[in-house]
Amino acid sequence: MTAIFVDTDLTDAARRRALYDGQLFVFSPRRSALALCEFARSLTEAAFAPLDPRRAQESLAVEDYVAILAELKPRFIHHPECKRLIRGLLDEMGCDLDDTYFDVPRMRTATHGGYLTAGIAYAFHPHRDTWYSAPFSQINWWIPMYEIEPDNSMAFHLRYWNAAVRNGSHAYDYDEWNKESRKNAATHIKADTRVQPKPEQPLALEPQIRLIPRVGGAILFSAAQLHSTVPNTAGQTRFSIDFRTISLGDVVDGVGAPNVDSACTGTALGDFLCARDFSRLPGDVVRRHKSTPAEAPAPQAVGG
Question: Helix or strand or coil: residue 187?
């Protein structure tokens, strides 16, 4: 059974344990999240000026659109203001800033009508982030920059929370992906030929859950949730922000969501920054998890 918690006042520790058990959380806009969206929109609107970013695809050749994103997205990802704003959001959401680590935020775009679905604007097939070497204690935060609707949102496929899906994660190594595939995203325009973990069996994708928060609202979910990009038929591009967090204590203790089908190698833990001072995760913690799934500490499923 999956529950959807709306604006709950659970502690961060209780919230994490519910997320590790497959529950979903939705929060109304917070001051700090609205500030993050406002900053992201200011960069985006300057990059696409004088066009409205949500309609820009109607006026640009796809190659020109990709060129804009290829400059815009790294500028947002690595801007020091983003780190400061995310620290404020985590503090406002009751996270322990000394125990909470986050990775840099991504700006996601989902164009409409099949205009661009590869590379730098990849339309994600059903997947778990844990197929991509995400730690099992990872929590995903997803925030719309502009208003969204069901036809340009994200879908959760809840029937697979405890059900294994045959997939290609056994061929995925995080270090290899960072070395080759991530940096080449902008070169994939018409089709995306990068090797990515995908389902290798037919899936029953209905019924599905689509959550529609307001601008600055947030969806929180476990990295082990099966989710996908909804094919955008809304007539305008969807812009969103996402980032991930882990609790250092949970990582050290091996607490997280269950591993039902992930077989990738490597770990994304080296990407995470302390919310207090932006320092990296301790090297010994990263090295301990930089192994094959069979050798890594087994995550403990919480709840039932």
Answer: helix
Residue 297 within a domain: no
Helices 80-92/31-48 angle, 10° precision: 150
63 φ/ψ angles, rounded to the nearest 5 degrees: -65, -40
CA distances from residue 104 to 223, 245, 270 in whole angstroms, order as listed: 16, 10, 12
The string of DSSP letters for 90-140 reads HHHTT--TTTEEEPPPEEEEE-STTS--SGGG--PPSB-GGGGT--TT-EE
CATH of the domain at 227: 2.60.120
Q: Which residue type occupies 132?
A: Y
What domain range includes position 36? 4-289
pLDDT in tens, 180-233: 645 554 443 454 456 789 999 999 998 899 999 999 999 999 999 999 999 999
Residue 220's φ and ψ, nearest 5 degrees, are: -115, 135
Domain assignment present for 296: no
* pLDDT classification of 119: cutoffs 50, 70, 90: low
What is the identity of the amino acid at 194? R
Residue 299 lies in a domain: no
Would residue 242 count as lying in a domain?
A: yes
Burial 46-79 (b: 16+ CB within 10 A, else e): ebbeebebbebbeebeeeebbebbeebbeebeeb
Nearest CA to 161 out of 221, 210, 237, 121 is that of 221
Structural domains of the chain, count: 1
